[in-house]
Write a structure and sequence with these properties.
The complex is a heterodimer of chains A (about 280) and B (about 260). Chain A is built from eleven helices and two strands. Chain A is mostly helical. In chain A, strand 1 and strand 2 form a beta hairpin. The longest helix of chain A is centred in the first third of the chain and has 34 residues. Chain B is α/β, with parallel strands linked by helices. Chain B has a domain of about 180 residues: P-loop containing nucleotide triphosphate hydrolases (Rossmann fold), CATH 3.40.50.300. Chain B has a six-stranded mixed beta sheet with strand order 6-7-8-3-9-10, with helices on both faces. In chain B, strands 2-1-4-5 form a four-stranded antiparallel beta sheet, with helices on one face. In chain B, helix 4 packs across helix 5, helix 4 packs parallel to helix 7 and helix 5 crosses helix 7. The chains are: A mainly alpha (about 280), B alpha/beta (about 260). Chains A and B meet through helix 7 and helix 8 of A and helix 3, helix 4 and helix 7 of B. The structure holds adenosine-5'-triphosphate and magnesium ion.
Chain lengths: ~280, ~260
């Protein structure tokens, strides 16, 4: 039997559709299960109290706070460093062997498994620099992990600013730095912001990099300084799921739900900004 | 006829030379793009540069505000005097040079900002004006390019929503905000339709009162209509330079003749 092009196309469509559904279904299923099982745990107390009775009761407040601290700490280190190096790479560096090596290294850095960052952080920040297991060490480790994300998205954002903006600005007597400041960065800002938010959701969600560098099994109080350990949501979830017996299903899924909502809402904001940016941009 | 005959026939004052080059050579790496260019451009005149594609017209323009500095591997020899100052001097202040010698680009390239913000871009960067004077600058610059009446009520409109002709006018207005003396225009009308082109040419006649204009064009009629002096370039050389009327009616060089009569690749 001979297939005409139209039939082939139809079959291809169906196959592609099934493939897409197969990808999306598990995600929907996971979210559904987590919401269904964790929903009832979400109370005001759960969000604002410290864990009690060996983490079988009470809330997850210290873990939420710890995660927020870590995200903020990560951004403090990664944002300026990442944006500045992206500016250097796109606006200043010449296209030579060294630059190409640096770019290659950044791409490869993005592919390094997160547990390797954890070990690296343990070796450098915790032991060698004697920060101990602390918010400082954890933030630095996470910062190194998200640097490639920030550099890559910032670089893309800068590259997408038309060359003519730079030429006009220079021809009006602006210096190179003024040009970057006033006619490049403002137009790249939404793209940079997208990268920042992706970095936030990555930093908030990872367990391995904080495992040896900051995460506390259980703390009855909030961290007092950047040299204190802190609890964090992903690690807390791991602990109550595998290390502590008889934690109710509700609490475990409730914790997962909180983490999921934090990460997904960050991603959602990134998507909104990006689509706004696309509409705005007409050059 | 867009040029009022009275202006055309008026005997222009003997204007001083404002731009002068002597044995100007420019190399992109090994490739020589300008060869011994000697030119003297008079103040408050319009000078047209014509010549086939790739002959070095844009390159020449870009030497005058040192935009070629941005390209790697460019070597320049010779003298470029603007107002008697050698601008190739390392000591020269690039900021004041580029304020003095402004550039209008081939494609209208306003920033994706409001009309007012486009014009205030340079004054803000150079901090040359107090905030309270900003509206005045916007008005002045827009008036100079005849956009004021159209836009006085919508200064916050995004410049990208303007027509191409309006965008090009706005780019000129943005340039005027730094109070330049010389306007370099690299094919400023090539993205515009004939009617818009005609109106930009009229504007150039008005601007000539206060500015020296050097325009690169592929449009021979445009050069003939709009300019006082014309230079014909070929393969990096300035073959012939003189009064536009003479160049177009009585060229001295066979190659100029071939080009303006269209017998040329
Ligand atoms: N950045 C560069 N690097 C190397 N060669 C260049 C560069 N820019 C221009 N050239 C060469 O220099 C010569 C002159 O270029 P230029 O752009 O000045 O010509 P033009 O007369 O403006 O041409 P057109 O009418 O097409 O705009 C051309 O042969 C071009 O290939
Ligand atoms: Mg050109």
């Amino acid at each position: 039997m001979r297939h005409n092009a139209y039939q082939t196309q139809k079959i291809a469509f169906v196959l592609l559709f099934i493939a897409t559904v197969l990808v999306v279904l598990p995600v929907i299923f996971i979210v559904f299960i987590i919401v269904q099982k964790g929903w009832h745990a979400i109370t005001w107390e759960f969000l604002t109290a410290i864990p009690k009775n060996g983490m079988r009761e009470g809330g997850i407040f210290p873990a939420i706070v710890g995660t927020v601290y870590l995200v903020v700490g990560t951004l403090i280190f990664a944002l300026p460093l990442g944006v500045l190096s992206a500016i250097y790479l796109t606006e200043y560096s010449k296209d030579n062997l060294l630059t190409r090596l640096i770019k290659l290294a950044i791409i490869n850095l993005a592919g390094v498994p997160s547990v390797v960052y954890g070990l690296f952080g343990l070796g450098i920040f915790v032991i060698f620099l004697k920060f101990g297991s602390s918010i400082l060490a954890g933030s630095l480790t996470l910062a190194i992990m998200v640097l490639p994300i920030i550099i890559t998205t910032t670089k893309e954002a800068l590259d997408s600013v038309p060359q003519s903006f730079r030429e006009v600005s220079l021809s009006l007597g602006a210096s190179k730095w003024q040009t970057i400041q006033y006619s490049v960065l403002p137009h790249a800002l939404p793209g940079i912001l997208t990268g920042v938010i992706l970095a936030i959701s990555r930093a908030a969600g990872e367990t391995a990099p904080i495992l040896f560098t900051v995460a506390a099994f259980y703390l009855p109080h909030l961290p007092q300084s950047i040299f204190d350990q802190a609890m964090a949501l992903p690690y807390h979830l791991y602990v109550i799921s595998t290390q502590v017996p008889n934690v109710s299903v509700e609490i475990r899924y409730g914790t997962a739900l909180v983490l999921l909502v934090m990460v997904l809402s960050a991603n959602f904001v990134a998507i909104v900004i990006r689509s706004k940016f696309r509409k705005m941009k007409k050059w | 006829m867009l040029v009022p005959m009275s202006i055309q026939n008026n005997e222009r004052k003997q204007a001083d030379v404002i731009v002068q080059t002597r044995e100007l050579n420019l190399f992109y790496g090994d490739f020589q793009a300008l060869k011994d260019v000697d030119i003297a451009i008079r103040e408050k005149s319009i000078t047209a540069l014509i010549g086939p594609s790739g002959c070095g017209k844009s390159t020449f323009l870009r030497t005058l505000n040192r935009m070629n500095d941005l390209i790697e591997g460019v070597k320049i020899t010779g003298e470029i005097l603007i107002d008697g100052m050698n601008i190739r001097d390392e000591q020269i202040d690039l900021v004041s040079l580029r304020k003095k010698v402004g550039m209008v680009f081939q494609r209208p390239n306003p920033f994706p900002l409001s009309v007012a913000e486009n014009i205030l871009f340079a004054p803000k960067i150079h901090k040359t004006a107090q905030r309270k004077n900003h509206p005045m600058i916007v008005e002045e610059c827009l008036k100079s390019v005849l956009l004021w009446d159209d836009f006085k009520d919508r200064l916050d409109m995004n410049a990208l929503n303007l027509s191409l002709e309006q965008q090009q006018r706005l780019c000129m207005a943005r340039l005027l905000s730094v109070k330049p003396d010389i306007l370099l225009m690299d094919e400023p009308c090539s993205a515009l339709d004939p009617i818009a082109t005609e109106r930009i040419e009229e504007l150039m006649w008005i601007l000539k009162e206060n500015y020296t204009i050097i325009i690169v064009t592929h449009n021979m009629q445009q050069a003939a209509r709009v300019s006082d002096d014309t230079g014909f370039m070929l393969l990096g050389e300035l073959i012939e330079f003189g009064k536009t009327k003479r160049i177009f009616t009585n060229p001295q060089d066979q190659r100029t003749n071939d080009y303006i009569t269209g017998r040329f690749g």
